[in-house]
Amino acid sequence: MNKTEMKEAILQAKSGKGLTWGDIAKSAGLSDEFVCSACLGMNHLEKPQADAVAETLGLGGEVSAALQRFPTKTWDRPIPTDPLIYRWYEMLNVYGETIKEMINEKFGDGIMSAIDFTMNIDRQEDPKGDRVLVTISGKFLPYKSW
Fold first, then answer.
1. Which pTM was predicted?
2. Catalytic residue set
3. pLDDT tens digits, residue range 47-74?
4. What are the structural domains, with CATH classification, of the chain?
């Protein structure tokens, strides 16, 4: 089973069982966001977590094995057309250079890791309409001279 087949099986089982990413992540003892990313094929899980996720979803060893395989973290998509994903694309196009400048000013020349990284997505109540609160924390990695 490849990652695409795994993703389809997981999404079908998740929907069929009426589970949330939180329900699935709880079985693995990991964050909702990380487990979701692994289930969508962009990260991997260790065997105990992969087995727990597959069992929670009522899926077999093929799904667990696919969850354990290291993904190829590339994509060949054109500009996203899903409105929510497109807004992230738009935000990075509008604010990406600003984010880079602010990080460089505060930390120096380097990058923010997406490997030593956490992300949390929460709902923030607001009288004008609830807001999406995304917290991204990545280790700063300075460039070095040699």
1. 0.77
2. 87, 90, 113
3. 999 999 999 999 999 999 999 999 987 7
4. 3-68 (1.10.260.40), 83-142 (3.30.1160.10)
